[in-house]
Amino acid sequence: MRVMDAKLADLLALLDLERIETDIFRGQSRDIGIPQVFGGQVLGQALVAASRTVPGRLVHSLHAYFLQRGDVAAPIVYEVDRARDGVSFSSRRVVAIQHGRQIFNLSASFQLPEDGLEHQLTMPRVPPPEGLRSIEALARQFEGELPPRMRRFLNYRRPVEVRPCRPELFVSRANAEPVKQVWMRAADRLPDDPGLHQALLAYISDYELIGTVTLPHGLHATREGLQMASLDHAMWFHRPARVDEWLLFDLDSPAAAGGRGLARGAVYAADGRLVASLAQEGLMRLRPARP
Q1: Residues marked as catalytic
Q2: Which of 27, 95, 177, 266 can pair with 45 through a Cys bridge, CB separation 3.0 to 4.6 Å?
Q3: What CATH number labels 6-112+124-286?
Q4: Could you read off the pLDDT of 68-107 as tens digits, one per residue?
């Protein structure tokens, strides 16, 4: 019997929430090298909680707000409100609670599968993932040039393979155009559950998105003195996708102002199908580095 990659198996266990009441669930957290609960984890868990109250329908869009930092050492309770069940669509609201306070909320809409008119933008031409290095390999190559916070973050062994198309963006301090492309996929084969793949896509959608905002400023999200935090997150699921197959995240940042930056993304399957769209606004404050 084949054994699944340990990190990926742990992530699947993390998303398999404990039901403690009819529409109330509880989840745990993992430290991934940042000082708070990873936003993608809360996003994925909240989507799982909502999905478990909508049998037979898949999410087509979600909108979420990050309200407070999550505590990695404490469980998170997810309360689901069954806002509406229509003939074709269902709407759910989820509130994530920790230490008696709301830390996150999500609205999601689910739909019965149906056919309709189709069109999409063309996937950009980029190097294929097979010839690119992972961010772990890049971290080892440039270890002496990276600050401790960035080194700790990049050396964390992920349940997802991440291969940037332009590796220099991960180590350079030069100002760059706010555009990047990154290939990602789960570290091992996954079950054929479409809802699970959607939850995992929500999880990994938070990996590289907001970092695009820092590129024009020659910064990295782990830079000392740079305060960054996700404020909101939106996703639209256009077509079915397998997260255990390579997905291209085509990311850009159209603007930053008022201490906030906006990042957008299009997610393509390797065969060119546009499977999802993303948007996220994040806090971005630069303070003098400590001596």
Answers
A1: 206, 230, 280
A2: 27
A3: 2.40.160.210
A4: 999 999 999 999 999 999 999 999 999 999 999 999 999 9
